[in-house]
Write a structure and sequence with these properties.
By secondary structure, the chain is an all-alpha fold. It has one domain. It is built from 6 helices and no strands. Helix 2 packs antiparallel against helix 4. The longest helix is centred in the first third of the chain and has 31 residues.
Length: 173
Amino acid sequence: MAASRFAELALQPVGATPPVFTASPVAAGTAGSIDLMELDKRVRSGGSWYYWVAALSLVNSVMAFTGGGGGFVIGLSVTQFLDVMLAEAGGNAKVIALVLGVVAAGAFATFGVFACKRHSWAFIVGMVLYAFDTLLTVLAQHWLGLAFHAWVLVSLFLGLRASMQANAMAKAG
């Protein structure tokens, strides 16, 4: 299309009053009028935290299985706890700890898949499980881990809220 067909680009005579453009709903910041694309971006941003938790938990479990030290604070505390407890038991217990770590990582990756598709249940169930994991972090008095757990929970909540808004908007048409 030619640029002259757009009113925004039309040349105005000297002294003419320029057209008044109102701010878009997104720029205005009204919660009820945010466009669907922006909401989907927020949903994916929140839901992607499940992938991070899953991946870093898996890395923590593999590192514990191979005898490497350290770990990531965003990962699941329950898998780190199991890795330590079962590593002391020796024998096949390390394999069991690794399998449980893989299962937990798979569950959180699954939450990520469904959360990014705007399934609110995935956000809610994952947040409840991660909140219980946060309690374990508190019991272990791992304060840096607690700060990261809190950040992830807030990010998940924002993703849930965006998911619910996007679903309501899609349902309303």
